[in-house]
Amino acid sequence: LFVIDDKGILRQITINDLPVGRSVDETLRLVQAFQHTDKYGEVCPAGWKPGSDTIIPDVEKSKTFFAKQ
C-alpha cells in the first residue's frame, strides 16, 4: 500500500504478508495525520486521531503534551 500526497510525494509504504490483513481505518488515520501536519506543522503521535492532542515541534512547547502522558 502506498500513500502519495497531492504533490506526488510518497508519504507511507505498508507491506503486509498476504495472510495478514490491512486496516482501512489505519490508512485513513495516516492520511488525516499527514494532512494535519502539513496544515498546522504539528506532530501527530502514534495512535493520533482528528481532534486528539498533537505535539508542538519545540522542546519547551512539547512539554505540554508530554506532561499529560
TrEMBL record:
Supply the EC number(s): 1.11.1.24
Q: Which residues form the signal peptide?
A: none
The answer to whether the entry has keyword Lyase is no
Location within or outside the cell: Cytoplasm
Q: What is this protein called?
A: thioredoxin-dependent peroxiredoxin
Q: Which gene underlies this protein?
A: prx2
Question: Into which family does the record put it?
Answer: Belongs to the peroxiredoxin family. AhpC/Prx1 subfamily.
Which InterPro entries does this chain map to? Peroxiredoxin, Peroxiredoxin_C, Thioredoxin-like_sf
